[in-house]
Amino acid sequence: MTKYHGDIGMVSRPLYRADTSRQMAIELVLLFFLGGLGAHRFYMGRTTSGLILLSLTCFGVIFGAIVGGIKLALLVVGVILVWLVMDFFLILASHR
């Protein structure tokens, strides 16, 4: 199922839809090794949420540690970890 975006010419894949177990393996490897940077989201064509995750990781942790102290930085890390765990289960569920 491919969706076309009018005149832009971009093609995006639906969220958590992969055709093969190879794609699932790639998504999981990206999730485990580069998940905090949103690499698995970029691979799946979810650029907006990938950018949100990337900016949350980079700016949230650094800014949180500088301005709000270690407690705010740990809160941001906790939010990122919850997001990644949810992505893990959603990727697994999409390939059943």
From TrEMBL:
It comes from Novosphingobium album (ex Liu et al. 2023). Keywords: Membrane, Transmembrane, Transmembrane helix. Residues 22-70 form the TM2 domain. It is found in: Membrane. It is a multi-pass membrane protein. This is NINE protein. InterPro entries: TM2. The keyword Signal does not apply. The chain crosses the membrane at residues 24-43, 50-67, 73-93. It comes from the Bacteria.
